[in-house]
Design a protein that fits this description.
This protein is α+β, with helices and mostly antiparallel strands and 455 residues long. Helices cover 55% and strands 10% of the residues. The protein starts with a helix and ends with a helix. Bound molecules: adenosine-5'-triphosphate (ATP) and magnesium ion.
Length: 455
């Protein structure tokens, strides 16, 4: 049964007095069906022709209103996930905390969510809350106006109705789009406690859209930032990629630091943060995030392992140095052990998949191999799978550290670009330098011996 506009408004008022539904007719907004992906349109129309309500919602509507192209299209409906599945052959149901239907069109996935409702005390089967007020399960279905109240920000609670091409703006999202404001729906404290990841999302959208965070939405973040410690590590891994690896990483990191959020995700590196952002760890963070942003802009491939390797490098080296003393290990073994230790700590908060932690170790290990270039070693290193990543990493260290590291990075730069004969000459030079150094060492120890011999 279709609800008319007045019914919906009345209900929204009854349940949640702050929300006032504003409906924009087709003539009053600029979203056209041409901007919506064909797959999303197919899903919307199939739901509608099967007697369900179907709306485009979230980032799709928000980004189109801002004149941007959405990264994906989210749909919401009054059909349950099971009903959605029956309509589409290419559909699978996912999620425990949030049960959703994914409709697959080749590589494109259209996400279909059923309207969320409010939680009743006796609905333990479908929803549950932790002692801190965090929602652990969220599968109570409801009406569209309840669904709007459950969304995070006003600009994410606008619904494009496929039945008449109107936009239903429940929380003043249109006005906030115009004022360029990220504003939580409802009481910020409560909404962050329900789901602390909303703090990260506030920062992410503010940076990506170049919006300000509205005052009351920003105010509780710093104090509530430790709540992120309760979020499962798999979810934080996904979020950390969205924050740092989607083209706005550098600015997002600085904002996260400002609100004490970065420190929650990477507790082991906060000790290396300084007032003026001048420690090697901070310089490495700036360089690696800036280069990731640049690569994304240029359409190049990126590997999250590189960023994690960069974030942790100097804290890891520092730990290795303490291990050399305390465990009496050689440098190589100390680095390997410190690497393991620090990655073990990190995966407790951010569940980096094993294939990435393996690459992080490879990049680190290469740093120990780069100085050793004599004989066939340099030639062999060039053929190693992760050589390029390792070399880019060395170049960044060169910028941070200067001196010998920078010289080493320059040597490798020249070596890669040189022809066969030149490469051989460079390696021979290393051999000469090494034997000179060895002779000098011998002389020195000889002299020391001699001087010890003197009575
Ligand atoms: P983008 O996809 O561009 O990152 P988005 O707004 O579409 O942005 P999604 O994560 O795809 O973000 O979520 C789709 C919509 O679901 C959001 O716009 C919002 O309405 C709702 N939503 C997502 N996560 C939450 C959350 N943690 N709390 C409340 N609502 C949420
Ligand atoms: Mg989305």
């Amino acid at each position: 049964m279709l609800m008319n506009k007045n019914d919906i408004t009345e209900q929204a008022h009854r349940v949640y007095p702050d929300l006032t539904l504003n409906i924009l007719t087709r003539q009053e907004h600029k979203i056209s069906r041409k901007q919506i992906s064909e797959s999303a349109l197919k899903v919307l129309y199939r739901l509608q022709s099967s007697g369900y309500h179907a709306y485009l919602v979230g980032g799709g509507v928000r980004d189109l209103l801002l004149g941007e192209s959405p990264k994906d299209f989210d749909i919401t409906t009054n059909a349950t996930p099971e009903q959605v599945r029956k309509l589409f052959r290419n559909c699978r149901l996912i999620g425990r905390r949030f049960r959703l239907a994914h409709v697959m069109f080749g590589r494109e996935i259209v996400e279909v969510a059923t309207f969320r409702g409010h939680h009743q005390e006796n609905d333990r089967q479908k929803s549950s809350q932790s002692e801190a007020g965090m929602l652990l399960r969220d599968n109570v279905y409801g009406t569209i106006d309840e669904d709007a109240e459950r969304r995070d920000f006003t600009i994410n609670a606008m619904y494009y109705n496929i039945a008449d091409y109107t936009i239903h703006d429940y929380a003043g999202g249109i006005e906030d789009i115009e004022d360029r404001l990220i504003r939580l729906i409802g009481d910020p404290q409560t909404r962050y406690r329900e789901d602390p990841v909303r703090m990260l999302r506030a920062i992410r959208f503010a940076v990506k859209l170049d919006f300000d965070i509205e005052e009351e939405t920003a105010a509780p973040i710093e104090a509530l930032s430790p709540l992120l410690q309760d979020i499962p590590s798999a979810r934080l891994y996904e979020e950390s990629l969205k924050m740092l690896q989607t083209g706005y990483g550098l600015e997002t990191y600085h904002q996260m630091r400002h609100y004490n959020l970065f420190q929650q995700l990477f507790p082991m590196i906060s000790a290396y943060f300084t007032e003026d952002h001048s420690s090697p760890t901070e310089k490495m963070l700036d360089l690696s995030l800036d280069s990731t942003d640049q690569r994304i802009e240029e359409g190049k491939r990126i590997n999250p392992a590189f960023m994690f390797a960069a974030i942790l490098w100097y804290p890891m080296i520092h730990l290795a140095e303490t291990f050399m003393e305390s465990k009496n290990l050689c440098y190589y073994d100390a680095v390997m052990e410190a690497g393991n230790k620090i990655l073990d700590q990190l995966v407790k908060t951010i569940a980096i998949p094993r294939r990435h932690t393996a690459t992080i170790r490879d990049i680190w290990q290469l740093q120990l191999r780069f100085p050793r270039r004599h004989g066939k070693r340099a030639f062999r290193l060039l053929d190693i799978n992760k050589f390029r990543a390792g070399f880019d990493f060395l170049t960044m260290r060169g910028i941070v550290e200067g001196g010998e590291t920078q010289e080493l990075a320059q040597w490798w730069e020249t070596f890669q670009n040189a022809g066969k004969n030149m490469r051989q000459a460079m390696v021979n030079d290393i051999g000469r330098i090494n034997s000179k150094k060895a002779k000098a060492r011998q002389r020195q120890t000889g002299q020391q011996k001699n001087s010890q011999d003197v009575p």
